[in-house]
């Protein structure tokens, strides 16, 4: 009677581990978007995922996203959110790479909804 109990316990731990690993993808509501700022959240996401192609120097596709003013242009014309959310009519970004995590997309969306401030 003992070993099935242990097996059950172990599989429970295993499942808990998986749940924890995938928490962000599965449950974006656990994503904290309470106080999203350009400098604290958005700029680092863009820097990590986009500037390899869209820095001022790289300028791939004639798209520059380095610095607040450059990025704001793509907020205003709607292309930033269209591209990262893979909406039709926009080029899906980041190019040739997996979609940004649901949490990172939610943070950028929140920042835009808050007025895309230089904060
Ligand atoms: C590997 C290089 C590469 C990476 C990384 C990359 N892009 Fe791009 N991006 C391009 C190229 C090339 C174009 C122009 C051709 C096209 O639209 O597909 C482009 C176009 C765009 C456009 C214009 C889209 C449109 O529909 O007109 C936006 C906005 C954009 N990128 C945002 C981003 C964002 C935000 C990221 C990071 C999450 C990112 N890109 C990452 C290469 C890249």
Description:
This protein has 119 residues and is mainly α. It folds into two domains: 1-30; 33-113, no CATH class. The chain is 56% helix and 0% strand. It contains seven helices and no strands. The chain has helices at residues 2-21, 23-26, 38-49, 51-54, 68-76, 79-84, 102-113. The radius of gyration is 19 Å and the shape is globular. The model is unreliable at 17-21 (pLDDT under 50).
Short recap of the structure:
The chain is mainly alpha-helical. The chain is built from seven helices and no strands. The relative contact order is 0.15.
Major sheet details: none
The helix content, as a percent range, equals 55-70%
**Number of separate helices:** 7
Helix-strand sequence: HHHHHHH
Between the first and last Cα atoms, what is the distance in angstroms?
Answer: 61 Å
The count of DSSP E runs of length 2 or more, i.e. the number of strands, is 0
Give every kind of bound small molecule, once each.
heme C
Strand content: under 5%
Q: Which value, in Å, is the CA radius of gyration?
A: 19 Å
**Poorly predicted segments:** 17-21
Look at the structure and give the mean pLDDT: 87
Shape: globular
Write the layout of secondary structure elements.
Layout: H1 2-21, H2 23-26, H3 38-49, H4 51-54, H5 68-76, H6 79-84, H7 102-113
The structure holds heme C.
What distinguishing features does this structure have?
mainly alpha, 2 domains, 7 helices, 119 residues, binds heme C, 56% helix
């Amino acid at each position: 009677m003992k070993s099935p109990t242990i097996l059950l316990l172990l599989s429970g731990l295993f499942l808990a581990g998986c749940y924890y690993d995938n928490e962000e993808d599965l449950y974006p509501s656990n994503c904290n978007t309470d106080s999203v700022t350009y400098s604290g959240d958005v700029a680092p996401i863009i820097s990590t995922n986009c500037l390899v192609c869209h820095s001022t120097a790289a300028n791939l596709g004639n798209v520059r996203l380095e610095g607040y003013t450059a990025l704001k242009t793509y907020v205003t014309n709607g292309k930033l959110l269209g591209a990262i959310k893979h909406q039709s009519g926009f080029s899906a970004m980041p190019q040739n790479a997996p979609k940004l995590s649901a949490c990172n997309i939610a943070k950028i969306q929140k920042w835009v909804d808050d007025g895309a401030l230089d904060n």
